[in-house]
Amino acid sequence: MPNTPALNKRDWIAGLEKGLRIIEAFSDTHPRLTASTAARRTGITRTATRRYLRTLEHLGYVESDGQYFWLTPRVLRLGWSYFDSAKIPRAVQPHLQRISLTLGGTAYFAVLDEDDVIFVSKDGSNKIQNIGYVLGSRVPANICSAGIAMLSCRTPDEIDTWLSKRKLVPYTAYTTTTEEGIREHINNARQKGYAILEQQMSQRVRGIAVPIRTREGHLTGAISVSLPMGNETSEAAVLRALPLLREAEYALLATF
Amino acid sequence: MPNTPALNKRDWIAGLEKGLRIIEAFSDTHPRLTASTAARRTGITRTATRRYLRTLEHLGYVESDGQYFWLTPRVLRLGWSYFDSAKIPRAVQPHLQRISLTLGGTAYFAVLDEDDVIFVSKDGSNKIQNIGYVLGSRVPANICSAGIAMLSCRTPDEIDTWLSKRKLVPYTAYTTTTEEGIREHINNARQKGYAILEQQMSQRVRGIAVPIRTREGHLTGAISVSLPMGNETSEAAVLRALPLLREAEYALLATF
DNA sequence: TTTCTTCTGCGCGATAATCGCGCACCAAAG
DNA sequence: CTTTGGTGCGCGATTATCGCGCAGAAGAAA
After folding, report:
1. Do domains A9-77 and A86-255 have the same CATH topology?
2. Contact B11 A50 (CB under 8 A)
3. Whose CA is closest to A62, among B129, B213, B86, B119?
């Protein structure tokens, strides 16, 4: 938790915050926005919103037909700055490769942002799920093994606040939607050092994950693998997958 | 080319531009920046840079130990806003899946941003290359088949200006570094409707790509597939890959 | 046709947000 | 002990930003 380090109010650049808010106002339900709708979505006045959008347009981050505005792939530069500068996503790639090839599923490296899981790196053809997580996707931490693995590294207090903020919505008929259920998942993961979740997000899919820490014990993320459930028992799957995950865990421990 | 639509200078939000410039100042060679170094890299004064960084920190986009600043995965939200709002990256995914599974390589969907290629969607385990393109990567258009495929849709004038801006640096011993060579690639691609490039970026790797257009003929991107060269001839590879690529091309044509 | 509504586009005057100088301070290196 | 390179911050100047308010366009409804 990067607790806010006391910000002098003179050090606050309002314009930057608004601009970023406007970029984030675009989403799948609102892929194209007029200046007015963007204003409503962000709570900024229409005139100001328009000025920001036009600035973004001039910078190449959005395009416009005069009426509507939409994001261009250039905004990926911003995210790319992260991929580029964070060593972990790259260091982790060969491990994901080995895991996905050996186990025949899809391997991910995920991190926590606020209360959601973000999938940062991925390897493996997603033949099992018709979609799988797209890179950069953000999902609630409670419905993927990586999320549970990372939550299991937090203090009980932090988990309490997490639970209080979170609405538990079911994705499949098997999704755990009770607080106690989630707590049990987390406790299991803490005890065993890995998380296993089944059919929480998609039917017939099982996820197994281990948290990744620095040598100082600071949590940096989690490696997870999605496997089709087939006829394999949970135990067999763990037996098969865990050694590989652990190996990656230790290897990454050594490099940071 | 989204030509700048005459920006009233009062509609220019300087703060937003600076903030984004600072985010982009982080890179693999400079993953962690002090306020001073960030200032030097962006050309903004140190004091201002520091204020922007602290604002970003407060917003959760960067973290800091007091001295150094580094990006957090939250910046992925910005890129994600694009993935989320652009329908193409998602519509394209099932096709990439089929291509990578059938051909045994890695399939990409790429777009042009300015003069570079950005890889927007990807499917397939990259067993052939030890890295492959990471999602969001940006590479010069002349060294990947997707880039040539997209350039082949441009007017001769545009290609001229592209060539004049671009310095042709070799990545492998086989990289084409002459203007005529590039023009030949482009012309071939325009003629045949697909691009094929060999060992331009990595040894023993071949790329085949087709441009993707809307029904109105507007270029939206390209689908490409990276294949290990093995003992397969170029002709055999094209014969094998092209039908799948074409199929995806037509399918996507129909949906937009 | 008229009348609403909803959008853009822009000028303007007010003001508060942003700027960068300049100084104190700290730590590491020579 | 000096130099170098960094942070942190107060302050006064200024200019960048704000949002009101109006004109105009485009569409929908009556």
Report:
1. no
2. yes
3. B86
Mutation site for B-interface testing, chosen from A17, A32, A51, A80 by largest number of B Cβ within 10 Å: A80
Q: Nearest CA to CA, how far is B173 from chain A (Å)?
A: 25
Check CB contact of A88 with chain B, cutoff 8 Å: no
CB contact under 8 A, B5 and A83: no
In terms of DSSP H, where are the helices of chain B? 14-24, 35-42, 46-59, 76-85, 87-103, 145-151, 156-165, 179-192, 234-255
Q: What is the pLDDT of residues A70-91, one digit of tens each?
A: 998 888 888 877 876 777 777 8
Mean pLDDT of A198-204: 90
For the stretch A27-45, pLDDT in tens is 878 888 999 999 999 999 9
Q: Which residue from B minimizes the CA distance to A132?
A: B93
What CATH class has B9-73? Answer: mainly alpha
Max intra-chain CA distance, chain A: 61
Residue range A222-239, pLDDT digits in tens: 999 999 998 999 999 999
User: What residue ranges do the domains of chain A occupy?
Assistant: 9-77, 86-255
Q: Does domain A86-255 have CATH number 3.30.450.40?
A: yes
List of chain B residues whose C-beta atoms are within 8 Å of the C-beta of residue A87: 31
Residues 151-210 of B with CB under 8 A from A: none
- The yes-or-no verdict on residue B23 having pLDDT over 80 is yes
Residue A35 in tokens: 């200046």
**B82-255: CATH superfamily:** GAF domain (3.30.450.40)
DSSP character for B168?
A: -
CB pair distance less than 8 Å for B85 and A121: no
Q: What are phi and psi of B166, to 5 degrees?
A: -95, 135
Which of residues 11 to 40 on A have a Cβ less than 7 angstroms from any strand D atom? 14-15, 18
Taking CA B80 as the corner, what is the angle to CA B78 and CA B85, rounded to the nearest 5 degrees?
A: 105
Beta bridge partners of A198: A206
- Tell me the mean pLDDT in the region A14-26: 91
Residue B130: pLDDT band (50, 70, 90) is very low
Contact A88, A109 (CB under 8 A): yes
| CATH class of the structural domain A9-77 | mainly alpha
Q: What is the model's pLDDT at position A2?
A: 41
The least confident of A20-29, A123-132, B24-33, B41-50 is A123-132
